[in-house]
Write a structure and sequence with these properties.
Low-confidence stretches: 205-211
Structural class: mainly alpha
Shape: elongated
Distance between the termini: 28 Å
Oligomer: single chain
Radius of gyration: 25 Å
Number of strands: 0
Number of helices: 10
Length: 211
């Protein structure tokens, strides 16, 4: 009975942390087969390993030995939800800062010229790919791979559009610059279709279990 309780708790904590069995094994300096046995309840980690597991996930050894964690699990879910919300707010604030800087540049230039609309309005066009690039940095760490690749596409087409509109190329046949975006976008889609690190680790784990 105790083996199954410990097994269930290890599985719950590992999945909640977004880790594979291979990830956990590497952090504990054990084989993934050993972790698999623990999670199936075929064996139990010794007390030293239980302490390492508890420290890794920020719980006590007593937590690993208890069966009912409804209150703790709900608190953990709320904490994860709150952390995700905070990440989204931080990323949004950074993107807003990019547009704020663009607006400040435009206003400053507008106040120095007698023209009705300053040519500096193009700064807003460049603000789009720049904000996508900044958000992509956060996305790599906090958000999904899909979000990262969508933002990467935004950077690509935003830069091409900016170059076209601001006259960095000949206006007569300026549209041809968008042809560069076609193979680049195909490359992004193919790159996005590659399995991520977690998917590779999970596939490796399944292959080992099937041996």
């Amino acid at each position: 009975m105790l083996k199954q309780i410990i097994a269930q708790n290890i599985v719950f904590l590992r999945k909640q942390a977004g880790m594979t069995q291979l990830d956990l094994a590497e952090k504990l300096n054990y084989s993934d087969k050993a972790v698999s046995k623990w999670e199936r309840g075929d064996s139990v980690p010794d007390i030293a390993v239980l302490k390492d597991i508890a420290d890794l996930f920020g719980v006590t050894v007593d937590y690993l030995l208890k069966e009912d964690h409804a209150a703790e699990e709900e608190a953990a879910r709320l904490e994860i939800r709150e952390k995700k919300r905070n990440h989204q707010i931080i990323a949004a604030l950074v993107a807003v800062v990019v547009w704020l800087i663009a607006t400040a540049v435009f206003v400053n230039d507008q106040m120095k010229t007698s023209e009705m609309i300053s040519a500096m309005w193009t700064v807003f066009i460049y603000a789009f790919p720049i904000s996508c690039a900044v958000l992509m940095i956060f996305s790599v760490k906090w958000f999904s791979r899909r979000t990262t690749f969508v933002l990467l596409s935004g950077v690509l087409w935003g830069l091409l559009f900016s170059a076209f509109v601001t006259g960095l190329i000949e206006k007569s046949n300026g549209w041809v610059i968008f042809l560069l975006g076609i193979p680049a976008q195909v490359a992004i889609i193919l790159w996005a279709s590659l399995p991520g690190r977690k998917a590779k680790a999970a596939a490796k784990q399944v292959a080992k279990l099937d041996e």
